Task: inverse folding
């Protein structure tokens, strides 16, 4: 009987009101999420600008690597396409979208310059 009376008393008690200090961890967590989102967004924009710059710098005789792993030499650059020569002996040419170019190999320093 005593247990029943205690539970009835607890059920009728008003919950304590949260103090303003209890909201600080939530505000800190929210601020961290916003900061991470803004950092990721600026990094994505920077990478897009670098990629677009690379696409505009594509020129004839550049050696490039495609996202499929094909290495070739550019023989023609069109608006949205590049034509690569991938085999000298058979004169094999392939046409790719500019967006398929992963990087320009001519821009990278050669291994012989490191020694």
Result:
């Amino acid at each position: 009987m005593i247990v029943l009376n205690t539970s009835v008393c607890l059920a009728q008690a008003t919950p304590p009101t949260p103090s303003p200090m209890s909201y600080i961890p939530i505000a800190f967590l929210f601020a961290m999420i916003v900061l991470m989102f803004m950092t990721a967004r600026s990094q994505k924009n920077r990478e897009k600008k670098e990629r677009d710059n690379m696409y505009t710098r594509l020129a004839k005789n550049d050696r490039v690597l495609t996202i499929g792993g094909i290495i070739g030499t550019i023989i023609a650059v069109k608006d949205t396409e590049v034509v690569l020569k991938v085999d000298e002996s058979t004169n094999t040419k392939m046409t790719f979208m500019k967006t398929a170019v992963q990087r320009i190999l001519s821009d990278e320093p050669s291994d012989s310059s490191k020694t």
Remarks:
- The beta strands are 63-66, 71-77, 81-87, 92-97, 101-104.
